[in-house]
Amino acid sequence: SAELYGDTTFTGTNLAAYAQYDRKFFDRLNLSAGVRYERYALENPPFEYLGQTIEASKATEAKPVFRFGANYQVAPYTYLRASWGQGYRFPTVAEKFITTTFGGIPIIPNLQLTSETGWSAELGVKQGLKVAEWRGFVDVAGFWTEYYDMIEFGFAQNFLAFQAQNIGDTRIRGVDVNVAGQGTIGGLEASLLAGYTWIDPRYINWSEAIDQGTSADYNVLKYRFRHSAKIDLQVQKGSFSLGAWAFYNSYMEAIDALFESDLVVKGLKKWRQQHDKGHVVAGARAAWQLDEGLKLSFLVDNLFNVEYMLRPALLEPTRTFTLRVDYQFRKEE
Predict the structure, then answer these.
(1) Residue 333 forms part of a structural domain
(2) Residues 286, 238 contacting (CB under 8 angstroms)
(3) Are 72 and 80 in contact (CB under 8 A)?
(4) In whole angstroms, what separates CA 69 from the centre of its chain?
(5) Do 173 and 144 form a contact (C-beta atoms < 8 A)?
(6) What local confidence, expressed as pLDDT, does residue 191 receive?
(7) Integer CA distances (angstroms), 145 to 85, 120, 214, 216, 221, in order
(8) Measured distance CA(234)–CA(297) in Å, rounded
(9) How many CB atoms lie within 10 A of CB 170?
(10) What H or E segment, with its residue span, contains residue 211?
(11) Which of 51, 90, 185, 248 fits 229 for a cystine, CB–CB 3.0-4.6 Å?
């Protein structure tokens, strides 16, 4: 929408070419390597900004990025994997030129915004399991990601407004564990999905965080959950099924400090102090498959009516009941 950009038309172009090579050795080892060449262009006409006329300009940038991966079958149900890849992202039109408001807070352009680059590595193992009538797998992975000139929205230094900014160099490392399985419980068909993620999100140069106006007095990136977990269990008997799910997020340790002042969101700091243990949200569902093409479901979200936020000052929905009918139209043979 032109209104998001001050009724001015901007043009962004992205062209890319990609090549990948895969090779299998000894029926156990799979190797892959890839390269992608990206070219970006961002063009703006003359426009007014803060009482000044910004001249027409065109910014172009191009760069290759590489990735490598390996997967090795150690045993019949055991797999090791490793990967490393580069990342590259040019600012979007919205990030560089947007002019609008959100929740009463202005969002302004950042004409000095530059591209972000980085790399990510992962080392993991996947183990197949069979326990009694259950079959499934456990997947454990460690990852390490670094961003340089990372782009995120934050408060502008000289204005009570949001804008996309290069927040400096950052590092996010962590561990991810996932479990999945299918089997029987008391004669009922059952399936399980569960996962847990721990991350250590921080600035490589802690002094840069101070410039970003973080609410934390230690090195941690804003708007991250250090711990998160999820679980989903379903049982089925014939055409009937019952399921339950839950997820957990730990306390969001850092946000923009200005959000915690009563000038922006009155009472937010007190609310965060009272809800500093994270949150567990659960739900349930029941379904009846009447025939091949007709399914009736009843769902409950936020079963225990937990008061929680995924973003500051934006409460998530309260307990919600949904009756759903799925019907599949089939073409006559």
Answers:
(1) no
(2) no
(3) yes
(4) 22
(5) yes
(6) 96
(7) 10, 4, 21, 22, 13
(8) 14
(9) 22
(10) helix 207-211
(11) 248
Q: Name every residue whose Cβ is closer than 8 Å to that of residue 128 and which is 6 or more positions away in sequence.
A: 76, 77, 78, 135, 136, 137
Structure tokens at 319: 């307990």
Tell me the pLDDT band of 330, cut-offs 50, 70 and 90.
confident
**235 in a domain, yes or no?**
yes
Domain count, the chain: 1
Looking at the domain assignment, is residue 332 inside a domain? no
CB atoms within 10 A of CB 155: 19
The reported pLDDT for the residue numbered 32 is 97
Asked, for residue 36, whether it belongs to a domain, the answer is yes
Amino acid letter for position 138:
V
Nearest CA among 181, 171, 75 for reference residue 125: 75
151-155 sheet: strands from edge to edge? 100-102, 105-107, 162-166, 151-155
Q: Spell out the residues 6+ positions from residue 285 whose beta carbon is closer than 8 angstroms to its own.
A: 242, 243, 244, 245, 297, 298, 299, 300
Helix (H), strand (E), coil (C) string for 145-168: EEEECCEEEEECCCCCCEEEEECC
Two tokens at 15? 């062209």
Print the domain residue range for 66: 2-327
| Angle, CA of 257, 218 and 200, to the nearest 5° | 105
Tell me the chain's radius of gyration from C-alpha atoms.
25
Whether residue 207 contacts residue 164, with contact meaning beta carbons closer than 8 Å, is answered with no
φ/ψ of 244, rounded to 5, equals -145, 150
Q: Specify the CATH number for the domain of residue 210.
A: 2.40.170.20
pTM: predicted TM-score of the whole model, two decimal places? 0.86
Structure token pair of residue 126: 């996947």
Q: Model confidence over 54-68: pLDDT tens digits? A: 778 888 899 999 999
What pLDDT, on a 0 to 100 scale, did the predictor assign at position 1?
A: 46
- Please report the beta strands in 6-56, taking only residues with DSSP state E, as ranges in sequence order: 11-25, 29-44, 47-49, 52-54
Q: Is 126 left (phi over 0), alpha (psi -120 to 50) or beta?
A: beta
Q: What does the alpha-carbon distance between residue 135 and residue 138 come to, in Å, rounded to a whole number?
A: 11
